[in-house]
Amino acid sequence: MKEKVLTEHFGLENLYKIDVYQKQGGYRATEKALKKMSPEEILEEVKKANLRGRGGAGFPAGVKWSFVPPTDKPRYLCVNADEGEPGTFKDRYIMSHNPHMLLEGIIITSFCVGINAAFIYIRGEYEAIALRLEQAISEAYEKGFLGKNIVESGFDLDVYVHRGAGAYICGEETALLESLEGKRGNPRLKPPFPASVGLWQCPTVINNVETISNIPHIILNGAEWFIKKGLPKDGGTRIFGVSGMVKNPGIYELPLGTSLKDIIFKHAGGMKEGKKLKAVIPGGMSAPILTADEIGIKMDFDSLVEANSMLGSAAIIVIDDKTSILDVLKVVTKFYSHESCGQCTPCRIGNSWINKIVKRIAEGKGKKEDIDSILRLASNIEGNTLCPLGDAAAMPILSITKKFRKELESHL
Ligand SMILES: Cc1cc2nc3c(=O)[nH]c(=O)nc-3n(C[C@H](O)[C@H](O)[C@H](O)COP(=O)(O)O)c2cc1C
Ligand code: SF4
After folding, report:
1. Is the overall model pTM greater than 0.90, yes or no?
2. For labelling alongside 274, which of 23, 213, 214, 298 has CA 20 to 30 A away?
């Protein structure tokens, strides 16, 4: 059985061009889905595959699609290509190496949900990739895979690329919708969820780039094959992005359930010369930190929840023994205090207050009560905000402060 799914052909020259992609079997999934399958059959297959969202929360994609209500209003698909979670760099590999795989996923998803307009919301810094996507989209129109009557199935779809302007919060799905509508990217209160009230108040599916890119493979090979690639409740592979103090940082596509230890020590080559492992952030900066003793863990959504952390965007940040945990906390708290949109008090005030305390400790002016103040402030953010950025900030701050309390106290 072939090991890789999404990255299998990444080494091929010019894979991003439609002719090369088609030579590898590209657009066969589109033909199959639009000509031989009904939307209901596609939905059933995606549900059976247990494809869980690759953007952060791990919500099953098929279940999310099934929440879209029957309505006369237009429906939309928004592909989340904001890739703002610190440490995360997987989606850009997919979009730059294999943009047509993503487009196929978009076509099949749209056909399944009854969508005729799809948007790729891409972070503004990815300008070269946005251009590549636009090039791929125009090739797909020329070959009849986009536009009117796609592969003579009677199905119409237009795809647009929309560039963000550099705010982390615009990766949060409702902030993304506001931004796409031309407004400031402030998250909306949920419910209603975007599946029923989304873009321009219409039903909208929002999925991550990697999630959508799995769809053509599920259609071609079936749900059972997909589940065997990973775990029964968590089908497929994940593209793990490993950064930090390892010998070979980069992306590694591996089955869900691969151990964190193997990813760091087998696949990423282990620690750099002379460095010892101190801690790992396993799923992008918002994920609670793990200590060196905790890396025996399996990398899938449920195992990480059990370990009080999260798989998130599967971005693994490896921290060595020479790195001060205070510096880590400084980076984390600076980021969230800067990126808070400011709508709710615990997030707006709490994050900047914690960052001020951490900076003060780093300047050698820490007070005895500072560690407890950080814990109290972060606990007051957690669960008390309008959008999940509040929790995304509080979780790493709380875990770092609790697990490395002694080291932090040594700075007071
Ligand atoms: C502050 C914040 C930032 C986020 N940034 C991203 C992002 O850059 N890319 C992404 O796919 N999801 C991001 N998410 C998650 C999205 O809100 C949403 O859950 C996801 O796009 C859904 O797709 P999925 O179900 O395919 O994972 C972010 C969430 C929060 C709270
Ligand atoms: S939690 Fe933070 S980012 Fe989210 S709405 Fe409130 S202030 Fe804005």
Report:
1. yes
2. 298
Report CA(294)–ligand 1 centroid distance (Å): 26
Task: Check whether residue 153 and residue 217 sit in a common domain.
Answer: yes
Q: What is the CATH number of the domain that holds 76?
A: 3.40.50.11540
How many angstroms is it from 72 CA to the middle of ligand 1? Answer: 28
Please choose from 52, 83, 169, 173 the residue to mutate so as to test ligand 1's pocket, defined by most ligand atoms within 8 A of CB.
173
d(CA 361, CA 368): 10
pLDDT of 195 > 90? The answer is: yes
Q: How far apart are CA 313 and CA 284, in angstroms?
A: 6
- Clarify whether residues 196 and 100 are in a common domain: yes
> Which ligand 1 atom sits nearest the alpha carbon of residue 175?
17
Residue 12 belongs to some domain of the structure = no
Rounded Cα distance, 392 and 270, in Å: 28
Cβ atoms 148, 107 nearer than 8 A: no
Say yes or no: 329 and 316 in one domain. Answer: no
Q: The domain containing residue 95 runs over which residues?
A: 18-229
Give the tens place of pLDDT for each residue, 283-320: 999 999 999 999 999 999 999 999 999 999 999 999 99
Structural domain total, the chain: 3
Give the pLDDT confidence score for residue 3 in this predicted structure.
83
Q: Residue 326 is encoded by which pair of tokens?
A: 């205070």
Are 111 and 105 in contact by the 8 Å Cβ rule? The answer is: no
pLDDT digits 0-9 by tens, 96-129: 999 999 999 999 999 999 999 999 999 999 999 9
- Assess if residue 206 is contained within a domain: yes
Nearest-ligand number for the alpha carbon of 61: 1
Q: Is residue 287 part of a domain?
A: yes
Q: Cβ contacts of residue 261 below 8 Å, gap of 6+?
A: 295, 296
CATH for 261: 3.10.20.600
User: Is the CB–ligand 2 distance for residue 348 below 6 Å?
Assistant: yes
Q: Are 91 and 209 in contact (CB under 8 A)?
A: yes
Answer yes or no: do 353 and 310 share one domain.
no
Q: Which ligand is nearest to the CA of 385?
A: 2
Q: How far is CA 74 from the centre of its chain?
A: 26
Residue 55 CB less than 6 A away from ligand 1:
yes
